[in-house]
Amino acid sequence: MLLLALGGGLGAVTRFVVDAVVARRNPFRVPLGTMLINITGSLVLGLVTGLLVADSAGSASATVRAVLGTGFCGGYTTFSTASVETVRLWVAEGRSTGARYAAVTLVGSLVAAAVGLGLAHLLAPTSAGA
Hints:
Blueprint: H1 2-25, H2 32-53, H3 62-76, H4 79-93, H5 95-123
Helix pairs in contact: 1-2, 1-3, 2-3, 2-5, 4-5
């Protein structure tokens, strides 16, 4: 549990830093930091999941999966903030802006997760029988 909490804390701190860096450089009224965080978090989770599932020898423990997947990626990504920012954009900038933000975040996150799984498939050592 302590390692899980540490992973979550590290993910949250990383999210805070990434969001602050993006916010300083963001010329748009759309919250790009949250979008970038959720998309890159989906990529990382897809990669981690794919690598750990491909670990047929079972050397990756349940603790590693929990700390990296649930802890770090759970602390790093933020569905609730993306939801609030979507509604805020919907109200302040119009329905189309809010809908586009939601669509890009959702589709970008799904594509990133698929890319992560694909990269894991390429990077995972193949078994001798395959």
